[in-house]
Amino acid sequence: MTQTAQADLTPSPLRDERVGRNSVLARLFARPEMGAVSGAIVIFLLFFIIAPPFRSAGSLATVLYVASTFGLMSAPIALLMIGGEFDLSAGVAVTSSALTASLFSYEFTVNVWAGVAVALAVSLAIGFLNGWIVVRTGIPSFLVTLGTFFMLQGLNLALTQTITNQVASPDISEIQGFSAAQKVFASSFTIGGVNIRTTIIYWIVVVFIATWILLRTHVGNWIFSVGGSAPSARAVGVPVAKMKIGLFMGVGLLAWFTGMHTLFEFNTIQSGQGVGNEFVYIIAAVVGGCLLTGGYGSAVGAAIGALIFGMTQQGIVYAGWDPDWFTFFEGALLLGAIVLNTFIRRRAEASR
Amino acid sequence: MTQTAQADLTPSPLRDERVGRNSVLARLFARPEMGAVSGAIVIFLLFFIIAPPFRSAGSLATVLYVASTFGLMSAPIALLMIGGEFDLSAGVAVTSSALTASLFSYEFTVNVWAGVAVALAVSLAIGFLNGWIVVRTGIPSFLVTLGTFFMLQGLNLALTQTITNQVASPDISEIQGFSAAQKVFASSFTIGGVNIRTTIIYWIVVVFIATWILLRTHVGNWIFSVGGSAPSARAVGVPVAKMKIGLFMGVGLLAWFTGMHTLFEFNTIQSGQGVGNEFVYIIAAVVGGCLLTGGYGSAVGAAIGALIFGMTQQGIVYAGWDPDWFTFFEGALLLGAIVLNTFIRRRAEASR
Amino acid sequence: SSTGGKKAAQGGEVVSAGHASTPRYTIAMITHAAPGDTFWDIIRKGASAAAAKDNINFKYSNNDDPTQQATLIQDAINAKVAGIAVTDPDPQAICPTIKKAVAAGIPVVMFNAGVDNWQQCGAMEYFGQDETIAGVAAGKRLAAAGARKVLCVLQAQGQVQLEARCAGVKQGLGSEGTMEKLYVNGTDSASVQSTIAAKLRQDKSIDAVITLGAPFAIIAIQSISQASSSAKLYTFDTNAEEISKIKSGQVQWAVDQQPYLQGYEAIDSLWLYLTNGDTIGGGQTVLTGPSFIDASNVAKVAQYAERGTR
Amino acid sequence: MTSRPGHQDKTAVPLVRLADAGKNYGSIIALSGITLEVSAGDVTCVLGDNGAGKSTLIKIIAGLHQPSTGSYEVEGTPVSFASPREALELGIATVYQDLAVVPLMPVWRNFFLGNEVRKGLRMDIGFMRRTCKSELLGMGIDLRDVDQPIGTLSGGERQCVAIARAVYFGAKVLILDEPTAALGVKQSGVVLKYILQARERGLGVIFITHNPHHAYPVGDRFLLLNRGRTIGYYAKEQITRDELTGLMAGGGELEQLSHELEAMGGAAADAAQVLGEDVQELGIARRPGSGE
Amino acid sequence: MTSRPGHQDKTAVPLVRLADAGKNYGSIIALSGITLEVSAGDVTCVLGDNGAGKSTLIKIIAGLHQPSTGSYEVEGTPVSFASPREALELGIATVYQDLAVVPLMPVWRNFFLGNEVRKGLRMDIGFMRRTCKSELLGMGIDLRDVDQPIGTLSGGERQCVAIARAVYFGAKVLILDEPTAALGVKQSGVVLKYILQARERGLGVIFITHNPHHAYPVGDRFLLLNRGRTIGYYAKEQITRDELTGLMAGGGELEQLSHELEAMGGAAADAAQVLGEDVQELGIARRPGSGE
Ligand SMILES: Nc1ncnc2c1ncn2[C@@H]1O[C@H](COP(=O)(O)OP(=O)(O)OP(=O)(O)O)[C@@H](O)[C@H]1O
Ligand SMILES: Nc1ncnc2c1ncn2[C@@H]1O[C@H](COP(=O)(O)OP(=O)(O)OP(=O)(O)O)[C@@H](O)[C@H]1O
Ligand SMILES: [Mg+2]
Ligand SMILES: [Mg+2]
Prior knowledge:
The complex is a heteropentamer, with two copies of chain A (352 residues), one copy of chain C (310 residues) and two copies of chain D (292 residues). Chain A has a two-stranded antiparallel sheet. In chain A, helix 2 (34-50) packs parallel to helix 14, helix 4 runs parallel beside helix 9 (198-216) and helix 5 crosses helix 12. Chain A has 15 helices and two strands. Helices cover 72% and strands 2% of the residues of chain A. Chain C has helices at 5-9, 38-53, 66-78, 91-103, 118-121, 131-144, 160-173, 189-202, 214-226, 240-248, 259-276, 298-306, and strands at 25-31, 56-62, 83-86, 108-111, 125-128, 149-154, 178-183, 208-211, 232-236, 253-256, 286-287, 291-294. Chain C has 310 residues and is α/β, with parallel strands linked by helices. In chain C, helix 8 packs across helix 9 (214-226). A six-stranded parallel β-sheet of chain C has the order 2-1-3-4-5-11, sandwiched between helices. In chain C, strands 7-6-8-9-10-12 form a six-stranded mixed β-sheet, with helices on both faces. Helices cover 46% and strands 18% of the residues of chain C. Chain D is α/β, with parallel strands linked by helices and 292 residues long. The longest helix of chain D is centred in the middle third of the chain and has 16 residues, at 185-200. The complex binds adenosine-5'-triphosphate (ATP) (2 copies) and magnesium ion (2 copies). One adenosine-5'-triphosphate sits between chains E (25, 28, 30, 48, 50-56, 97) and D (152-157, 182).
């Protein structure tokens, strides 16, 4: 029988013979969001080349604006999904908060800030309720929030109808405090002739905070753990229920903010609005590398996902493609971006 | 130190002292679908009491019809979900198959059966494609089918436009073979003055077959295993990829059938149709006890889920509730049914 | 040797009125249409026909979410188009962006929706009809026809123009009768059919059903027979199949606001302005309806409907 | 024995005390009528056949389950834990048989999960990564990279992380459910060392194992379970290792095994002999000159 | 030894043959330069420290992974398995360390998963449930109910299901990755019996364990791994158990442990003595009259 030479058994601190050389590219693509980045770059170049209007700074500002309206929500949704839960009511929740604010200030003709405050309370309450039902009953959040989705959608319509006898909220631009609120929630500034919405700034801030929480604080650690394996997390003493409720309320918080933006951007809000957006948020998060099963993902990735979505949506318009084919292209580009993203990550992992 | 008497170590074949008495109710509620059944009963009674028109045999037939149109799809979707995958393109796939059949026979003015055959091929192809991309790329099916969802939606509209330059398929009721096809896919018979759609029969048959496969054949065993733990299934030699692709094609098959029904029921198809139904199917499956994470559920449950959905949708109308509140009630009832369902199962498990 | 099919339908070529040699302008049309809606399909046909005639590079885009629609207008501004034709279902939401366009020196015409606000928004012209006006007209005529209890079927929830139509009907009926709304899931024929049938069963006193889109009228026919109700069927908007149903008497009449005309005029007027500085209507709304298609005039319309321009 | 510091507290109230505790999962009775005391500086070995109820027992003590019957006291005060967190706060650290790790998370995040070291609002990541690495080295596990997802570690490596974690945070009571199951000879030795050190430090230790060679040397008391019931509760003085092993194996069944094989006759005989050898190793009957 | 039937085949081509095989996970080199032969009627023990690469090695043989380097032959013909199914079809059955069971599925469905017994189109459920129950009883596991989800079984019970399954279906080669890790004394004995029986039947067996008491009696050959490399490949004749254990433990490190403790002095000394005892048990240095 063969008898190979005795290998040294002591760990070598300098260089571990059990680790191959590790290319920079590889280490880069280990991060969950890098795949999405490559997707974003490709789509950007695509439209930059084929759609001249897309190149103007103004257009880019618009694209960024659209992306920001999705991105503001996709950040907390990403955290929620990393925490292992869904929220299908997020889209209409935005509308609910806007409606609450405007109907409240309109009905009682009080300063809009009162309405804004009430809306905040309501949004947080919705988030809390979602979370509470999920943790108390153990029903998958997909179902729970689907229920609340229908209920909110119904409430939005019904209450608006009963209060205003129409399906859109009344114009509140005349009510006291409106202009101030507008400054806060829906203003814009101009750099080099390009008009930039403040939401873009807010978006960046939110993503930054989310990322910081996720990677630098113990809360982030707990979010990953409740999503990755709730029983294990519970066993080592992570307050699973609290975490999940908190994540849902986080979604509520930004639903409120986004709602306020929509309200003060357009002075009014249609009660049917927001339906379907919940998926845009989820898509953004997942394209950005979040696992649907939880426990893995990043806020930056979700932001890039939102950007991809925004670019696609606007880019198709700028490219002037036949609107009949709009959804087709949207789907094709989306799928393309994801496949590319996965493909590249695979290659990187293999080659490293 | 205490020293308790030596317990007998030999297994007692007659009565296992380690098993408490086990109530019938408890054993009943161990089945995944039983929760849904209770939900269905409650909702049925609710409307039976408050909505007189709901009681007539005719109304029930209508309810069953609606339920069957959902149920025909929710069965394969349930199998797919037990197998651990989603299909968000199922709703539009139905429309795609209907459009294919009608446009094909219209464009080439051939016997509708030719169109029907082509539609079948296309539907299966779509299912195969979904499955193939999922297993090849390892991208979550939620995303892949979301992509195909958009693409099909786009194709439906775009192709209909280019071929008929309208947004609806042309009336094919004049084309040869139509009446025969209608007999097969969209006929009805009358029992005791009540007009009953054949889809209801088909529905029952499909559910029966699905259940049989799931519980009595090795294929069913494999479906549970690929959903419950794909790596383990693979390790013991289950052909995971084949199974998943097969499940997607199963969805394709019934999407084709449902599409044919819609086509021959209404002679023409709006290209925008079917959007949103994918969720009705999933809801039905999950309300029926399927886990979103896969590996657990039943076809019967999905059928009952579809029934619950159909009853809710129609019942609200029969009850004549304020239409503005329609969606709200829909959501409330849905959530109610689920909570009840979970609650009862819990009680049963605890009490047993 | 089969009847029907494309061969049978041959010969319905779309209108083409010569071809202008004026410079090629890019004009954007932005509507609040939901994709795949027959009514908007006809509007677009009209617009494309005008564009073809006027040598115009025609860019159509649509989104039923006002905020998104506003973004689409912004896109058009960014793209520096020569003119914009836009619908305005939600003035507060959309006017600001339209004003931007005007400020950017882009001529804007409005059509189909926004009749009350088009001047304030800074549009040059308005083509079309207020949904409410159409509704009122329909309501009046229903009352005349002796309808006492009208069921107004909305294929989507929370859409301004649909709500406006039903509100109009109610207003038109006045004291003569009552109107009740019914929401149906427009993307699912089976459930549309069953839901309407269910409603008719639930309330036997309904003697008139009015749908807000041609396809739903077709489906409603089956519902009515299914519920063995005696209610008569009326509808807004038209398509080929529905016209034939009017012929056969299964549908009493359809409110027609001539969508083709709206689309055509919107583009054509912009072309006239760009090439010749003309404006139509002298600052007044140009109404394209409401007109009614019933047994008396259906024959005339039928052939156009066949090719999908009416 | 009585010289060990832990043993002053022998007289004092036990750290953990279960009286007549039981646990049902639905209709399944996993555990019934268990009485157990763990004092400071005292190692209690819970031994028993597969499915005897050992893990269930420690899950009750760890606060993961509530006992269906009976009472549970910590340091004399009755408790009923809603979650393991409460047990942890009372200084009861546990290594679960299924390890309770989050596969997708890096090793160091798992190590400190629930006990993150904070520096103001943020975590002191540098410190945590260093500590994790060194604690594992201390167990003879030389990780390539503490950022490797723990799911990609080998079974034993994963187990070592769970143990190191519990030992690092264990304050008063340390519960180990088959900690040496997947461990190499060296690592097992380290674990036994840790148990003894913990005892020295006056912790109460509950140690579950199937290996009498591991149980007997370190244990002070032995609780034997079978089919969810107590079949014996001994102090070390009261029992020899052979008796212990005998009870663990459920009587003479092992010898029977070898007899069976001999019965097979012919070629099997030699195998039987080998097995016989092994049977001795398993400590049932030791003849002189065992082994080879 | 040479009397055993399996051993005619010694001259014939080995059932399984790895030549200079290696495996990388991304940048991580888990295994390199492994050469291994398994002949019919031959038990090969793969031994080594945690993270040495044992599981990786058997995953290659089982067809779960493809070797990154080197060649793999089954009965003389080079193979490269795309999936474990292909290996199974060649009669290579495996018990994985992570057991490869589907937690939500009933015990009997797991037992027959991938090898369902059919009666026409349908499965022969009655037979499968009976067989499952009896096979497990044969291992000393008396299940309450074979319809219990396997996820609710105890660690050891679950492991027994996996083993019973492999033994039941194993045709030519039987691979066991730490099968006795979570097992009780009795069950371990049964597993060893199974291994010997398999050998009798002329199967090739690959047996991974950390327990020299289990490895030595049943093994014909011993492959020692460390940090992904072979550090020794012996026939039973070439090595004593003590040498074996020594190599497994990585040299004198264990004695070092006890010395450490003695260094702690005082109370620790006695502990050190206990550990010392244990060290002997672990077979490093056997003095006469070990144990008590
Ligand atoms: N999927 C993977 N990705 C990265 N590294 C891995 C993966 N699987 C195993 N490894 C590494 O390869 C090495 C060998 O793992 P393996 O499971 O073969 O060890 P082992 O000998 O079975 O250890 P044990 O005795 O603890 O089971 C380990 O250091 C582990 O960290
Ligand atoms: N969640 C559960 N549901 C139903 N039965 C369970 C559950 N958990 C454990 N059991 C049963 O309770 C009994 C005791 O399980 P436990 O895990 O405590 O055994 P154990 O002594 O730890 O065995 P091992 O030595 O194999 O780990 C087992 O027979 C098991 O089948
Ligand atoms: Mg256990
Ligand atoms: Mg291993």
